[in-house]
Amino acid sequence: MLKFFKAPLIWAILIWAFSSIPNTELPDFSFWRILSGDKLIHVFLYGVLSFLLVGSSLKQHMYRRIRYNAFLFTLVSTSSYGVLIELYQEFILTDRYGDWADALANLVGAFLGLLLFKSIFKDYIR
């Protein structure tokens, strides 16, 4: 089963590694910051993660529940991972800060990755 999940696992490790890089900027709040390039990076990273994870979930045959609920499994897993990364940054790292707007961008990315997968592979999905 692990062979199908190599790509999303490697991508998740890269997200964790990038999220652990020290940040020298202090957090500041601005409504316009939600639309910043940083948020687009979050959307991209979690969109790719969900795209890879749903594809892997549909390919594996060991766990039927995951396969038949691949979209829900992927949305919950990817969104939870995004929130956990923000909590990790807030409470474990001393030079990073968790951000609710980043967590929201992670959720949006997870959802858009699923939509992209569904639109590309619509003929192959039951």
Characterization of the model:
With 126 residues, this protein is mainly α. It is built from five helices and no strands. The chain has helices at 6-19, 37-59, 64-68, 70-91, 100-120.
Protein topology:
Layout: H1 6-19, H2 37-59, H3 64-68, H4 70-91, H5 100-120
Features:
single chain; 126 residues; mainly alpha
Q: Biggest sheet, in brief?
A: none
Compute the number of strand runs. Answer: 0
Number of helical stretches of at least 4 residues: 5
Strand content: under 5%
Rg over CA atoms: 15 Å
Helix content: 55-70%
Describe this structure in a few short sentences.
With 126 residues, the chain is an all-alpha fold. Helix content is 67%, strand content 0%. It has helices at 6-19, 37-59, 64-68, 70-91, 100-120.
